[in-house]
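Worked Example 4.2. Read the sequence first, then its structure tokens.
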Amino acid sequence: MGMRQIGSKKSLSEQAYEVLKEAIITGELRPGQILIEEQLASQLVISRTPVRSAVRRLEADNLVEITPSKNIVVASISEKEIQDASQARQLVEVEAVGMLAETITEEQCGELEAIIQKQKDAMTRKEYLEFMEYEYQFHVKIGEFCGNIWYGKMLESISLLQRRVLILTWHLEKDWDYVIDEHTQILDALRSHDKEKSRKAMQFHIINTPMELKNQK
């Protein structure tokens, strides 16, 4: 396992959480894999205490599960979870983008535009993991900007699951252009403060990005 070691300038538990979270999302730590605190601490070159704290946060994120026998297991993703997440996105994210269309500022448009540009750059370099990071950021920003803290939290959680599934299945590898075009259409609708057009563009994007596990490696 090639997880990076971490130093001591920040909170060790925070750094351990970030490193382990990224390893799970990118598939370096696979669904069903058993994690051992002592080994994780050794690989990260820290004590077991911050690792234990990080694991508790990962459990709250539904990224690991603690079994009755106290084993730490990387959480699997069921088809039911994916179906529920897709349904939730159509309810929450379509509403959030409609709300945002009424209040979005040029500065916020600029932030979304910068994410799309970074996604284009990642596509040019064929950096799929980086591409998916910006896919995640685009949707999380919409939740953050919409003005409803609960929509923001829900979208962050749902987008995290989506990012993990799409990385595990490499589902968008041949559809990079379409994703960027759809993000651009959403941004254009937001910039024009067209609520209905924004909602329709987001709904099309969600429907056009199905999440499936059948191609999971």
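Now turn to a second chain, presented in exactly the same format:
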Amino acid sequence: MKKPTGYLRLMRPANIVTAVSDILAGAALVGYAGMGDQHPSSSLSLGWLILSTIGLYGGGVVFNDVFDAALDRVERPERPIPSGLISVKEGALLGSILLIGGIGAAFMFSPLSGAIAVAIATAALVYDKWGKHHNVLGPLNMGLCRGLNLLLGMTLLPETITHVGFLTIVPLFPILYIAAITMISRGEVHGGKSNTILAAAGLYAVVIVAIATLSITHQAYYALAFLALFIALIFPPLVRAFHEPIGPNIGKAVKAGVLALIIMNASWAAAMGAIFLAIGIALLLPVSIVLARLFAVT
């Protein structure tokens, strides 16, 4: 069982759950929860998009470790590839299968979804190979993957996006949020800088204001409860990392930020009035937390 477990470790199962929440949030943003019987095949369509994001996210993080194999032998020798449990070729094969499967699943729904899946896979590989080495472009590159993933969920009803102007810019906010987490994560091994953490907190605040504005606009005030939980999850570890920016504290802030993506997505859904879908998304958090105890998040 060691090798199958090694493959799972490469895929970061806890993170994949957060990617599924992106798809559900995107679906909520375009009105999936209120479709009723108008689109009887919508659940099957949503299933293809969920399968797509599992493949795309899993493949992306696997290739992250493939490209980082040499560095991980020094900094993270316990990971599957540097430890010798999984070879670089085996990792590359797994990553390729996942990415191709993710793209194929998206095309099973629509050409638009397939095109966005290709863009996600490309952005992930660019980040894994080159983007992560750039201080500014790297975080934006990583954020782009999440923004496109939310957009992938929104392709469930693409015609809705053009009718609601604000929806066209919503994918920008996950880009900012993930860019903030990526900025912080660069200090996980050797420690970081308080100024970087402060800048990340500012980006967090922009996202929080956007969700609050959407919820008030739709008079979906119960979304503020989800938003309060989101704030409670991300800021305490971030404040500790700000006061003492050592590797372990930064690692906890990054982990909290990644897992809290689920509640951020639940907040987006609630802000659109999709309360039951928001609750369903939020219930993914315990699943992700359990998986995070078994498999590394970062």
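Notes for the reader: The longest helix spans residues 42-67. The chain has a mean pLDDT of 90.
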